[in-house]
Amino acid sequence: MSFFLPVLLRNLLKGPSTEAFPFGEAITPKKLRARISFDPDSCALCRVCARICPAGAIQFEKKPDGLEFNLWHNACVFCGLCALYCESEGLHSTNDWHLSHLQSEKYDLVERATVKFQKCTKCGKQKMPAPLPLMAKLYPGLPADEIERLRAMCPQCRKAETAPAEGEPS
Amino acid sequence: MNAQIPSLLSRLSTKSPWLYRINAGSCNGCDVELATTAIIPRYDVERLGCQYCGSPKHADIVLITGPLTVRVKDKVLRLYQEIPDPKVTVAVGVCPISGGVFRDSYAIAGPLDQYIPIDVNVPGCPPRPQAIIEGIAKAIAVWQTRI
Ligand code: SF4
Ligand code: SF4
Ligand code: SF4
Predict the structure, then answer these.
(1) Exposed/middle/buried for B77, CB within 10 Å: 0-12, 13-18, 19+?
(2) Which residues form a coiled coil (chain B) (predicted)?
(3) What is the pLDDT at residue A167?
(4) Chain B partners within 8 Å of A21 (Cβ)
């Protein structure tokens, strides 16, 4: 009896332990891994994510002016590997788990964006984008305007700028 | 009088659809989450007026987990035929929806919607209990239009 009374009292004071959802907000941890978000401005088109994804949820499709990123949420297993391996911070796990949908919307649940090829500002050749998060990692300590100038160039011109051959002006 | 009983029954049953669970070769992850929605007071799916039942003959909303392996395919389809119409089908987890990590495996006959008409999808691997409850709420809305 003496063991039981404190438990009873505590349960009376605590109120129901059932979450309010779906009649109210659900408790969602900040770090819950759910819907993956994609930022086309931070994508270097390296396609590591498509290679690493265990569920084959990410696919790239060729377009005339770039590559189209496709992530089908109905295949994603929320493992977060793509976000872990993306050096360019183009992919992030969010805690948005409201993904249930009617069958008619099955193939609409796609994260889709075209990442455009760019033109090198020096030689004018078509090149892959060099997003800011990646370039800031590659050239730590460089001033922001210098990084902006370098990332608008193709890898060859960038190489020539940052490591000039002997005798060439830098 | 006789005509009134079925209409009364259907009016009452819109408020209390019974859930039935089919495991189509799931890894058990989604099944554990389904059990969680029912047994753990924190989630308590019975607030929505539904409860799990043990016989396909009593089912109104059927929740299917797993990628439909070749081995269980016929058994699942037979079981599904036993559930009386009208019924609402919910695919729980990415496995029945797309195959998930088992997609394109030689052992998989799915995706499920090639064999069974699906009404609601709840993606996730596994979906969290709240997501399953959200899916069941959508299924109940579909159920009310069917009866
Ligand atoms: S999202 Fe990240 S990993 Fe994927 S292609 Fe773009 S930069 Fe590479
Ligand atoms: S979280 Fe995992 S399954 Fe989902 S897209 Fe990224 S790598 Fe693929
Ligand atoms: S969706 Fe994931 S947790 Fe659910 S049955 Fe498939 S592999 Fe298991």
Answers:
(1) middle
(2) none
(3) 64
(4) 130, 133-134
A30 pLDDT higher than 80: yes
Find, among A96, A79, A74, A77, the residue nearest to A29 by Cα. A96
Touching B: A residues 32-71, CB under 8 Å: 32, 34, 54-56
pLDDT at B1 over 60: no
Looking at residue B74, its pLDDT comes to: 95
A166 in a domain, yes or no? no
Q: Is the pTM of this model over 0.90?
A: no
Ligand 3 center from residue A112 Cα (angstroms): 24
Q: Contact, B101 vs B93, CB < 8 A?
A: no
Q: Which bound ligand lies closest to the C-alpha atom of A56?
A: 2
Query: How much is the mean pLDDT over chain B?
Result: 90
Which class is B2-7+15-146 in CATH?
A: alpha beta
Question: Is A72 inside any structural domain?
Answer: yes
Report the C-alpha gap between B59 and B17 in whole angstroms.
8
